[in-house]
Amino acid sequence: MRIIHLSDFHLNNDENSYHVMDPLFEDLKKFHEGEKIDLVIFSGDLIDKGGKSFKDPKDGFLAFQERVIERIRREINLTADKFIICPGNHDTKRELDSKIDEMGLSHYLVDAQLTGEFQKESKGFDKIKRIQPYKEFERSLYNQFPTINVTDYETIHDLNIAEKKVAVAALNTSWRCYDSATDKGNLILGENQIINQINVIENADIKIAVMHHSYDELKDFERLNIKNLLNKHFNLV
Prior knowledge:
237 residues; four-stranded mixed β-sheet; three-stranded parallel β-sheet; 39% helix; 14% strand; globular
């Protein structure tokens, strides 16, 4: 199985920026002609600053789909379920959540138990509206594939590639991103993003986890446990 890993395009509405990617697309086509590319993983920051240069984030994500995803898919004859995305901090529209709500969450989510309860009980995108435009785009991208489960947090891809069952967990480390100056060391993944998908993961031959941020950007209370869970249940992070 051959995987291409891409990240951090920070797409904006400057027409000139699109041409910078042309050499990459040409290289991918050459790589694919030499040896088939089975999977493309894009690990966050599809757009720049929450789509600030676009009318709204939706337009930014649709531009990314048209200019990046569809272009790569055409070049290497890839189905949409084999193009994996996960959210980065630039894929959130932070101002959709009030400072009061953000302060409340910061003081409430202080351990794994409270985080798990919040993730389990929160309905829709109440208090995490910042991630809603991205998740709506993700659902529209994969809604035709019954083996892809898009939740309000993580997305699990249950794939068949080269006669192997492949599970890819696109984890969301960006739902707590709010202030670039203070995000590092204060982000939360939440064990539920892994535990909720254990059945799919354990039944796979190859298990891959994707996330935008590194372990040291997570809060102290969960950093080691998340690392242990990922090491235990995945072949590749």
